[in-house]
Amino acid sequence: MLAIIFFTRTHTVRGWFNRWEAEGFQGLEIRAGRGLKPAINAEDTSLVASIREEVALTPQNLRDVVERLNTRWNTSLTVKQLKNFLKKN
Questions:
Q1: 50 and 80: one domain?
Q2: What angle do CA 78, 50, 67 make, to 5 degrees?
Q3: Whole-prediction pTM value?
């Protein structure tokens, strides 16, 4: 019933109860490290420098930039991920 009220799955509600029993209110707090990790680590200065070089070569064709970066760094970036990174940095 709670899963329906909160629009979630029953195993999520079960996890809430288990954390409540083990840790009390602190077990129900939102914890760090949740969510999807960024595709590009902004702290990796060599990768960021490489991205800036590649974008400077062909700023109008990010598809080619992504292909070159994926080949050079053995990653699986998408054009959307690159655009999001460029907007933030």
A1: yes
A2: 35
A3: 0.60
Task: Report the alpha-carbon distance of residue 55 to residue 14 in Å, rounded.
Answer: 47
Domain limits for position 77? 45-88
Tell me what the mean pLDDT of segment 34-62 comes to.
89
pLDDT in tens, 3-29: 999 999 999 999 999 999 999 999 999
Instruction: Tell me if 70 is assigned to some domain.
Output: yes
- Same domain, yes or no: 50 and 17: no
Report the alpha-carbon distance of residue 74 to residue 43 in Å, rounded: 18
Q: Which residues of 46-85 are buried (b: 16+ CB within 10 A; e: fewer)?
A: ebeeebeebbeeeeeebeebbeebeeeeeeebeeeebeeb
**Is 64 within the bounds of a domain?**
yes
Task: Tell me: do 49 and 84 sit in the same domain.
Answer: yes
